[in-house]
Amino acid sequence: MTQPVTIPKEYQGNVINKQELYENVFFLQVDTGQSVTFKTGQYASFLIRDIRRPYSFACSAGKSIIDFIVGTREQGTTHDYIQQLQVGDRLKFLAPYGRFVFDGEDTRAILFIAGGTGIAPIRAQLQMALSAGLTQPIKLYFAHRDEARLFLSQEFSALAKKYQNFEYVPVLSKAGETWAGKRGRVTTIIPTDIENLSEYTAYVCGSPAMVTDTVAMLQKQGVPKEQIHFEQFT
Amino acid sequence: MRIEVKRDMCIGAATCVAVAPDVFELDDAMKAIVKNPLGADDQTILDAAKSCPTLAIYIYDDADKQIFPVPAS
């Protein structure tokens, strides 16, 4: 029943870029100086003093400069560590972990659905899909609360302009009055937007509640279990 | 040696199962459990604990003193 698991290795790297995407959510780039072994969609475990925290690689595999999107919600060691982390600091992590893997071999249309920082592995998978030259329809639904939190939106919009088979659909649950895009929940919007959902392979990542509801919606819409891949961020 | 899996910390990564398959397994909730504490030598079990992404596996010596994760001094 258990899938093969690669034994993680310890890596170290220098933080070469740190940006606060919005409150307590950071984009980190770490130069490890060597190719890090992982599959697109997997995660690393940061070694933070005496604890560890899993964070998904937000870039496709095969690189030495690694992107992370790191959210910290609680006060405490992790929060303080990430807040205080500066460009030039050394960061240690174990990798790879996880089974939320995108291999690019499926020829079905692809539906990426992300909520909040769940966009990290989805961004990696999207990068891989587009850079691999996949030609099937690829859609990204990115759910968040409001415009201010819709980080990376410019990046995804630019990709949608560049790749004709890619559509980016931001969805806000509490949008301001000027928001011209989709409002509500992905669980109600996607079945309305996409008639032939069962022909898609879906990749879902977000909070446990968002993932549970979205997977249930997909199954209700006739998407076979084997075409639904998901990861919960807690 | 005593092995304890902190169930609330386990996220089902299964690396412990990969490192020490005769000691750990995932249950129906995809949480690691100890199926046989004598299924591997002490170093292998320690390696399995060290490989956990959330440090959910605690190891105690025969005097029930925690040896991993190394307690903060």
Terminal Cα span of chain B: 21 Å
Percent of residues in β-strands of chain B: 15-25%
DSSP strand tally of chain B: 5
Largest sheet of chain B, in brief, is:
3 strands, antiparallel
Q: What is the count of helical runs of chain A?
A: 5
Outline type of chain B: globular
Number of strands of chain A: 12
Largest sheet of chain A: 6 strands, antiparallel
H and E order of chain A: EEEEEHEEHEHEEHEHE
Low-confidence stretches of chain A: none
Share in β-strands of chain A? 35-45%
The SS-based structural class of chain B is alpha+beta
Please estimate the helix content of chain B. Answer: 10-25%
* Radius of gyration from the alpha-carbon trace of chain A, in angstroms: 17 Å
pLDDT average of chain A, as an integer?
A: 93
Q: Roughly how many Å apart are the termini of chain A?
A: 24 Å
Chain pair sharing the greatest interface = A-B, 19 and 17 residues
In helices, the fraction of residues of chain A equals 10-25%
> How are the strands of the biggest sheet of chain A laid out side by side?
4-3-6-1-2-5
Number of helices of chain B: 2
